[in-house]
């Protein structure tokens, strides 16, 4: 199920559930799932302990922008693979 909200920057868009580190842009890693959620590796390792206070909704386009910054800041392909996982779920078209 795709949920849409209004983003100040991108208008009406799909939103993802992300950990507060990804949502604030302070994460240096991100892992995506097919369930439209994205967590930093630390939160993904401890996902069972996450509460509503640990997650926020994030515009899909803002999430793509954040991911692009992580990719640009990667020093090598190996570094990129260590920083981003499951990117194919972000690229998937939502109906």
Jot down its keywords.
5 helices, alpha/beta, 95 residues, six-stranded mixed beta sheet
Can you walk through the features of this model?
The protein has 95 residues and is an alpha/beta fold. The protein has one domain. It contains five helices and six strands; from the N terminus they run E-E-H-E-E-H-E-H-H-E-H. Strands 1, 2, 3, 4, 5 and 6 form a six-stranded mixed beta sheet that branches. The longest helix has 13 residues, at 60-72. The termini are close together. The mean pLDDT is 89.
Q: How are the elements arranged and paired?
A:
Elements: E1 4-7, E2 11-19, H1 20-24, E3 30-32, E4 37-39, H2 41-45, E5 55-59, H3 60-72, H4 77-83, E6 84-85, H5 87-91
Parallel strand pairs: 2-4, 3-6
Antiparallel strand pairs: 1-2, 2-5, 3-4
Can you give me a brief rundown of this structure?
With 95 residues, the chain is α/β, with parallel strands linked by helices. It has five helices and six strands; from the N terminus they run ββαββαβααβα.
Characterize the biggest β-sheet: 6 strands, mixed
Tell me how many strands there are.
6
Q: What is the approximate shape?
A: globular
Number of H/I helices: 5
If you compute it from the alpha carbons, what radius of gyration comes out, rounded to the nearest whole angstrom? 13 Å
Summarize model confidence as the mean pLDDT.
89
């Amino acid at each position: 199920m795709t949920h849409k909200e209004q983003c100040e920057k991108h208008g009406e868009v799909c939103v993802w559930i992300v950990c507060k580190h990804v949502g604030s842009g302070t994460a240096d890693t991100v892992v995506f799932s097919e369930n439209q959620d994205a967590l930093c590796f630390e939160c993904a390792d401890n996902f069972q302990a996450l509460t509503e206070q640990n997650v926020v909704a994030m515009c899909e386009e803002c999430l793509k922008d954040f991911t692009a910054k992580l990719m640009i800041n990667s020093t090598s392909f190996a570094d990129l693979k260590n920083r981003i996982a499951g990117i194919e779920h972000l690229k998937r078209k939502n109906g």
